[in-house]
Amino acid sequence: MKKKIKIAPSILASNFSSLGEEITNISKAGADYIHFDIMDGHFVPNLTFGPDTVKYLRKYSKKTFDVHLMIKPVDKFLIPFIKAGADIISFHPETVKNVDKTIKVIKSYKKKVGLVLNPNIKENKIFPYLNKIDLILVMSVYPGFGGQKFMKSQLKKIEKINEKIKKEKLNIDIEVDGGVNISNAKKIMQAGANILVAGTACFKGGKKFYKKNILNLKKSK
Ligand code: DX5
Ligand code: ZN
Predict the structure, then answer these.
(1) Tens-digit pLDDT profile for residues 130-141
(2) Ligand 1: which of 22, 38, 116, 200 to mutate, judged by most atoms within 8 Å of the beta carbon?
(3) Residue 1 confidence class, pLDDT cut points 50, 70, 90
(4) Residue from 42, 88, 141, 181 to probe ligand 1 pocket by mutation (most atoms less than 8 Å from CB)
(5) Closest CA to 126 of 99, 162, 96, 97
(6) Which among 120, 36, 131 is positioned nearest to 85, based on CA atoms?
(7) Atom 4 of ligand 1, nearest CA residue
(8) DSSP state of 10
(9) Of 1, 28, 90, 165, which has the maximum CB count within 10 A?
């Protein structure tokens, strides 16, 4: 099944002094999802925002709120993020005690679930959960900061995941996060990804460029 390409701007690269406006502008410019990078200074070496920020930002856009948790522990924050308005919650399997249980909680609120693979984690780590999840988020940088260089080594992993999904006829999105730009977007999509997270590439140049930035990423197909 051919999936539509979606762009998920990471607001980590936006102007934090006017997050609401930034989210409205990037939504109007054609963003499909709004990607929230939630960092705790413990699982990753940086801090960003919590559920309250997501809650206050919810009114600035009707787009899918794609929440990427880079926190440990995860479980006690699930319901706060769901109540704040998250539509998709992705977590790193190594941050929870029982992956099945965490998936179940998110699903019980009828939200989509994603599992995230850091660059050093093999794809088979998440294969046991494939029939329970909606999305696989392949990290193409070590998470913590925006503006890092895309790791080409992750393309093979995307291909392998894509093959597996096709073989098993599963309806799972493949999202890629980290260093995505117009020079590598085509290769990433050819490898099988259908959702591109992009911070720097979407927000560069300021609001006049958002539409063009998003179109350029989609067009590189
Ligand atoms: C990395 C984050 C990414 C990041 C992407 O820790 O998970 O979502 O913000 O930013 P760019 O596109 O600038 O690499
Ligand atoms: Zn992310």
Answers:
(1) 999 999 999 999
(2) 200
(3) low
(4) 141
(5) 99
(6) 36
(7) 146
(8) B
(9) 90
From the list 32, 37, 66, 173, the catalytic residue is 37
Is residue 130 within 8 A of residue 168, CB to CB? The reply is yes
Q: Is ligand 1 within 6 A of the CB of residue 37?
A: yes
Pairing of the two strands 112-117 and 173-177: unpaired
Could you report the per-residue pLDDT of 21-44, keeping only the tens digit for each? 999 999 999 999 999 999 999 999
In single-letter form, the type of residue at position 3 comes to K
Per-residue pLDDT band for 2 (boundaries 50, 70, 90) equals confident
For ligand 1, say whether the CB of 69 is within 6 Å of any of its atoms. no
Distance 107 CA to ligand 1 centre (A): 26
User: Which token pair is 174?
Assistant: 């493949």
- Provide the edge-to-edge strand list for the sheet that holds 88-91: 6-9, 195-198, 173-177, 135-139, 112-117, 88-91, 64-70, 33-39
Is 40 a known active-site residue?
Answer: no
177 is catalytic: yes
Q: Say what the pLDDT of residue 76 is.
A: 98
Q: Cα angle vertex 144, ends 142, 146, to 5°?
A: 90
110 SS3 class: coil
Residue 24's alpha-carbon distances to 34, 82, 87, 163, in angstroms, are: 10, 21, 17, 36
